[in-house]
Amino acid sequence: MAQASVAAMVDTFRQDLLRLEEEIGKVIVGQKEIVRGVMLGMLSGGHVLLEGTPGLGKTLLVKTLSEAMRLTFSRIQFTPDLMPADILGTNMIVEGEGGQREYKLIQGPIFANIVMADEINRAIPKTQSAMLEAMQEHSVTIFRQTHRLKEPFLVMATQNPIEMEGTYPLPEAQLDRFLFKLNVPRPTRDDMHRILEQTTGTVFPSVSPVITGDRIIEMQKLIREVEVDRLRRDYVVRIVESTHPEAPKAPPIVKRYVRFGSSPRGAQAILLGAKARALIEGRFAVSNEDIRFVAKLALRHRIILSFEGEADKNVSHDSILQGLLDAVPEMER
Predict the structure, then answer these.
(1) What count of Cα atoms within 13 Å lies in the side-chain half-sphere of residue 135?
(2) Which residue has the higher pLDDT, 103 or 118?
(3) What's domain 227-328's architecture?
């Protein structure tokens, strides 16, 4: 591929993303890091888990994203009485033109480009597991028939970290299906003023579509073509290896506070996210900075704390990962 052609593709990619973020910024006040994290997850072809207290704009962010990309959007409010058929859909007997009865699929809300799984940890495990095939295979099986989901397909789920009553924590196998986990912070004082100005007046900002689903698919394909050399790939491998307390070179903070480390999906998430960030920064090759930038997003839900880690209130997943990143050298000595 000619160098001029590569530079043109990278520039077009970057401009498309910046236009998309600018459009989302008309509605979503602040939260630039969260918006960028969602963009990285979407462009990498993965699902995103958003964790934050109610009222921080998580649902509005997802809905605004779909409006800015001409994509279909559906929202599922997870509750303890929600059943798998409420998500996937079901076959119903309908009467045809000739009076003959036949089964017809009534599609559930999973048949959308962007699916908002609101408070996913409030559903029973049986219902949570109904999402697994859709998230991994981009298909659903109903009455032994497999139905492909339309691309691009993205699940964005939310969790409330402070209210545990009536919740069912997601199993590790399902958490592992999320490419990134993003912690949504409270808005700053200045952002609060802007939020109040926008939401308590007579005019609410609107979003115009600036990109299509087909273009998103093209961008996802371009990300996989970004170059990664052996040294950068080895850096990712050593980071993920170091999340396991039994690993010979695991840092002391991991040996003390972590019970189980990341699966290989963690390494895949880091590398794909790093490729996406490289393009956003105008490069066609991954740097160590790209890897460090996405490492916490990709690993914070993939490490399981030990009893001591859970008990020590001064320790968090992010502080452990920061200690890990500080301890793992960019090049193996």
Answers:
(1) 23
(2) 118
(3) Orthogonal Bundle (1.10)
